[in-house]
TrEMBL record:
UniProt keywords, alphabetically: Nucleus, Protein transport, Ribosome biogenesis, Transport
Domain SDA1 N-terminal intervals: 79-454
Membrane-spanning segments: none
A biological process from GO: protein transport
SUPFAM superfamilies: ARM repeat
Function summary: Required for 60S pre-ribosomal subunits export to the cytoplasm.
Domain of life (superkingdom): Eukaryota
Location within or outside the cell: Nucleus, Nucleolus
Compositionally biased region (Basic and acidic residues): 481-497
Keyword flag Protein transport: yes
Family annotation (InterPro entries): ARM-type_fold, Sda1, SDA1_C, SDA1_N
Highest classification ranks of the organism: Eukaryota, Viridiplantae, Streptophyta, Embryophyta, Tracheophyta
Protein name stated in the entry: Protein SDA1
Length: 797
C-alpha cells in the first residue's frame, strides 16, 4: 500500500533511485530537507484525501468500515501531523479536516482510529498550529464518547495545555474564552458534558491554575444542577473530602483501596530527651542525640506534608462566593424539597453549615431543621452535630440556637445514656459554648461538671475539658474548687452584639520586651538601676524602723517612742542588699526588725541580758520619713524615664516592615514554646498566672472546619504490630544499614592496630634465640611440676 511504502515510479519521477522508503524514514528525510520532498508530500496528501473520502462513503452507507482503510487513514494522519510544521502552506486545511472527521464521525469510528486521529490533533495543538480555544469544545466532547483511554487522553491534554499556557504569564483574554466554554457546558442539561466540565474546572482550580473567583463560583453553582452525579461531585469537591478523579464516573465516593495509606506519627517524648542528655556514657548519649535528630526531621517532614495538603480543611471554594447568603438560602430550600438518598442530604447539610460558619451568616430556619435529627440513634449523628457546631457563631442570636442546645443536652447527657453518647454530648456542648458562651447557665454547667467523677475515661475527659474552657470564659459559673487559678477571675463572656475594637497594633507590646517574654524573665529595661541612686539615702531608708501609721499615732502626743529590736533578726538582715530591700519596701510595710541602728542595742542585750529600748525624739523620726519619701520618689522617676526611653521608638506611631516581621517571629516563638510546654518537653517558666489553654478567636473558629472525629470518644487505642513496626521504621529513615562491629573493623581502611603490628614485626636473631630459650625453660618447669604429685604427709615420719 502507498501508506507504508513509496513506489519506485514516484522516486524515478523525482530523479531518485528505485528504493522503497517507509513512512517513518520518509518523515525523517522530509524534516531534514523539506523542499526536496514536496512531490512526495503532494502524492501522500492526495492519498490521504482519497482514503478520507472512501471512509466517509462507507460510513454514509452504514457499512462497517474496512480495517485496512482505517489503518491506512490513521497512519497517514499521524505522518501528516508530524510534517505539518515544515509545510504550513500546503497543509493549512489538514487540521480542519481532522477536527471535522472527529466531530462528525467520532462515535462511529473504531477505537484505534479514533485514538490515532486524537493523537494527531494533539500533536498539532502542541506545535501551536491550532489554538487551544479552537479545539477545547471538541476535546470535551471526546471525553463523553465512552472510551476510557480516549477520555484520559483528552482530559490530560486539556489540563496540560491550559497549565502550559498559564505557566509564565496569564493571558486573561484567552482564559476568559476557555472559561466561558466550560461554564456553558457546565450549565447544560447533558449529564456527561456537565460532569466532564466540572472535573476539568475542579482539577485546574485544585492545581491553582484557575484560582480565581469566577471558577470558584462556577464550581459552587454546580451544586444546583439537576443531575445527582454532578451534584455529588460538586459537593465532594467543595467539602474537600476527596479529589474529583479525572476518570471516575461514580457518585463521587471512592473505595477504601484507593485511599492513601496514612503515614505513621512520630512522637518525641520527654523521657527520650532526658536520656539523651543525662543518662549513659558519652558514646550512648551521642547515639541517642542522633536518634532525636532523626525524630525531629521526621516530625518536620510530617508538618510539611500536613501544610502542603490543602484539600483537607484549610481551603474551600466557598470563600469566593459573591452572594453567600443567597447561596445558602437556595441550597437549604433545595435540601428541604429534595428526595435524594441520605448521604447526599448529609453532604448538602455540611455545605450549608460550612457556608453559614465561614461567612457568619444568619439562617434561622437551619437550627430547627437540625433539631429534628438530633437523636443518639440517628445515623451519622456525629457528622450532623459537627455541622450544627460549624453553623454556630457569635453573630447568631442565642435564642435561635438555644432549643438545639437543650436538645443535645437532654438527649445525650443523662444517667441512662451510654458513655459514648455522654462523651459526644459533652464535647458538643463544649464546642458550642466556645463559639456562643451565652447559651450556658450556671446551674447547667455545675450539673455537667459533675461528670468529671465518672469512671469512664472518655466522659471524665470531656467534663474536664468543659471545666478548662469555663475557667477562661466565666470562672464565676464554677464552684470554688473547680476554678483553679484563672488569669482573670472576673472574666465574663461578651454580650450579644458586643465587639472589641483594637486600639493598637496586635503584638506591638512584644517589641518592648524583645525575647524576654519567651524566657520568662522580667524586662530588664523596665527595672530601674538601683546603683544610680544615692547609697546614703538607701542606707537611711534602711534605718527607718516604723511605718507611717505609728508616726501618725504618736504625732499628737509628742512623746518619746520606744522601739524594741531583736538581735537575731538584725544579724540576718545585715546581709540584705539594696534590691531585696526595695522589694520588701514595695510589698509589705516596714517592721521593727528592719532597723539599722539597733545593732548596738542587740549587742548590749546579749551582754547585759535584759532587753533595752531605743529612745528617739519625734523630730528625728519625721526627718527620716522625709528622706524615705524622697528616695521612693526618685525611684519612681527613674523607672518612668527608663520605660519612656524603651518605648519611645514604638510609640512614635509608625512601625516599619522590620517591626512587623519581628512581631511575627516573636509570636511564632511564643506559640512554639507554649506547644512544647503543653507536650511536657519544656518547663513552664513564663508566668505562674499564664494559662496553658488559649481560646481561639471567633474568626479562626469560623474559618476552621469542625472535624467530627473530635466529638467522638478520644481514647488512645492500642497499636497493632504493623503500626508499631511502621513507627519504628519511620525513625530509621536516615540511618545506615546495620553492620556488626567485627565487620566494620574488617573493612577498616586506616591500617592495623599496634597489637597487630607487634605480631607481624620482624625480630632480630638474638631476640629470637632469647625467646626460644625462655620458652624451653618454661616448658621444663611445667614438666617437672606435672611429674610430682602431692600425696599428703606420711604418718610415720
Amino acid at each position: 500500500m502507498a501508506a507504508q511504502l513509496i513506489s519506485p515510479e514516484s522516486h524515478s519521477a523525482s530523479g531518485r533511485g528505485s528504493e522503497k522508503l517507509s513512512l517513518p524514514s520518509l518523515q525523517s528525510k522530509m524534516k531534514c530537507d523539506p523542499e526536496g520532498y514536496e512531490t512526495e508530500l503532494k502524492l501522500l496528501y492526495r492519498h490521504f484525501e482519497s482514503s478520507l473520502h472512501l471512509f466517509r462513503q462507507q460510513s454514509a452507507l452504514s457499512v462497517s468500515a474496512d480495517p485496512v482503510v482505517s489503518k491506512d487513514l490513521g497512519d497517514m494522519s499521524m505522518f501528516l501531523a508530524h510534517v505539518t510544521p515544515f509545510y504550513p502552506d500546503r497543509l493549512a486545511d489538514f487540521p480542519g479536516k481532522l477536527a471535522d472527521l472527529l466531530s462528525e464521525n467520532g462515535r462511529s469510528l473504531i477505537p484505534s482510529l479514533r485514538s490515532h486521529l486524537t493523537q494527531a490533533l494533539i500533536l498539532l495543538v502542541n506545535r501551536q498550529i491550532v489554538g487551544v480555544e479552537e479545539t477545547l469544545r471538541l476535546f470535551m466532547e471526546l471525553q463523553t464518547m465512552g472510551d476510557r483511554n480516549l477520555r484520559k487522553l483528552a482530559f490530560s491534554h486539556v489540563v496540560q495545555s491550559i497549565r502550559r499556557m498559564n505557566q509564565k504569564h496569564k493571558d486573561e483574554a484567552k482564559n476568559r474564552k476557555l472559561q466561558s466554554i466550560l461554564f456553558t457546558m457546565l450549565q447544560e442539561e447533558d449529564e456527561l458534558k456537565a460532569k466532564r466540565a466540572l472535573v476539568v474546572l475542579c482539577d485546574l482550580h485544585r492545581r491553582k491554575v484557575w484560582f480565581d473567583d469566577r471558577t470558584a463560583n462556577a464550581i459552587c453553582t454546580a451544586c444546583f444542577h439537576s443531575s445527582s452525579k454532578v451534584l455529588v461531585s460538586a459537593l465532594s469537591f467543595v467539602l474537600g473530602y476527596e479529589e474529583v478523579q479525572e476518570g471516575d464516573d461514580s457518585d463521587g465516593s471512592s473505595s477504601e483501596d484507593d485511599m492513601p495509606t496514612p503515614h505513621p506519627i512520630v512522637v518525641l517524648r520527654r523521657e527520650d530527651v532526658y536520656k539523651a542528655n543525662q543518662k549513659g556514657t558519652s558514646a550512648s548519649k551521642k547515639k541517642k542525640k542522633a536518634k532525636l535528630q532523626r525524630i525531629v526531621r521526621s516530625m518536620k517532614r510530617q508538618q510539611r506534608r500536613a501544610s502542603g495538603n490543602c484539600g483537607l480543611g484549610s481551603y474551600t471554594p466557598l470563600t469566593h462566593l459573591k452572594d453567600a447568603q443567597g447561596y445558602a438560602e437556595k441550597l437549604f430550600s433545595r435540601l428541604q424539597k429534595c428526595n435524594e438518598r441520605f448521604e447526599i442530604k448529609m453532604m448538602m447539610l455540611k455545605v450549608i453549615a460550612r457556608t453559614v460558619g465561614l461567612h457568619r451568616l444568619i439562617l434561622l430556619n437551619f437550627y430547627p431543621f437540625l433539631q429534628r435529627y438530633v437523636q443518639p440513634h440517628q445515623r451519622d449523628v456525629t457528622n450532623l452535630l459537627a455541622a450544627g457546631v460549624q453553623a454556630c457563631h457569635d453573630m447568631v442570636p442565642p435564642d435561635a440556637v438555644e432549643p438545639l442546645f437543650k436538645q443535645v443536652v437532654n438527649q445525650f447527657v443523662h444517667d441512662r445514656s451510654r458513655p459514648e453518647a455522654i462523651a459526644v454530648g459533652l464535647n458538643v456542648v463544649r464546642e458550642i459554648c466556645m463559639r456562643m458562651p451565652l447559651l450556658m447557665s450556671e446551674d447547667l454547667l455545675q450539673d455537667l461538671v459533675l461528670y468529671k467523677k465518672s469512671h469512664e475515661k472518655a466522659v471524665s475527659t470531656a467534663a474536664r475539658s468543659l471545666v478548662t474552657l469555663f475557667r477562661e470564659l466565666c470562672p464565676s459559673f464554677l464552684i470554688k474548687k473547680d476554678r483553679g487559678r484563672p488569669t482573670d477571675p472576673k472574666a465574663k463572656p461578651k454580650e450579644f452584639g458586643e465587639v472589641t475594637i483594637a486600639s493598637n497594633v496586635p503584638g506591638a507590646e512584644l517589641l518592648e520586651n524583645g525575647d524576654e517574654p519567651l524566657s520568662g524573665d522580667e524586662d530588664e529595661s523596665n527595672i530601674p538601676d538601683i546603683d544610680e541612686l544615692d547609697e546614703e539615702k538607701i542606707e537611711e531608708s534602711d534605718s527607718e524602723g516604723d511605718g507611717e501609721e505609728m508616726a501618725s499615732e504618736e504625732e499628737d502626743n509628742g512623746e518619746e517612742v520606744e522601739i524594741a529590736s531583736d538581735s537575731g533578726d538584725d544579724n540576718d538582715d545585715d546581709g540584705k542588699d539594696e534590691s531585696d530591700y526595695m522589694s520588701d519596701s514595695d510589698d509589705s510595710p516596714p517592721t521593727d526588725s528592719d532597723d539599722g541602728d539597733d545593732d548596738k542595742d542587740g549587742d548590749e542585750e546579749t551582754q547585759v541580758g535584759k532587753p533595752k529600748g531605743l529612745k528617739r525624739k519625734f523630730s528625728d523620726y519625721e526627718a527620716q520619713l522625709d528622706v524615705v519619701d524622697q528616695s521612693l520618689r526618685t525611684l519612681k522617676r527613674l523607672a518612668c524615664s527608663k520605660m519612656a526611653r524603651a518605648s519611645s521608638d514604638i510609640n512614635d506611631g509608625i512601625l516599619s516592615n522590620e517591626d512587623f516581621h519581628r512581631i511575627k517571629e516573636l509570636k511564632d516563638k511564643q506559640q512554639a514554646r507554649l506547644a512544647l510546654t503543653r507536650q511536657g518537653l519544656l518547663k513552664d517558666s513564663t508566668d505562674s498566672n499564664s494559662s496553658s489553654f488559649k481560646i481561639p478567636s471567633s474568626e479562626s473558629l469560623s474559618t476552621k472546619r469542625m472535624d467530627p472525629a473530635k466529638l467522638e470518644i478520644n481514647i488512645k487505642r492500642r497499636m497493632s504490630k504493623e503500626e508499631r513496626l511502621a513507627l519504628v521504621k519511620a525513625g530509621r529513615e536516615d540511618r545506615g544499614k546495620y553492620r556488626a562491629r567485627t565487620a566494620v573493623k574488617q573493612k577498616k581502611t586506616g591500617g592495623l592496630s599496634n597489637r597487630q603490628k607487634e605480631h607481624k614485626k620482624a625480630m632480630p636473631l638474638a631476640a629470637k634465640k632469647a625467646k626460644a630459650a625462655r620458652s624451653r625453660q618454661e616448658k621444663k618447669k611445667l614438666q617437672r611440676r606435672s611429674s610430682k604429685q602431692f600425696r599428703g604427709k606420711k604418718a610415720w615420719k
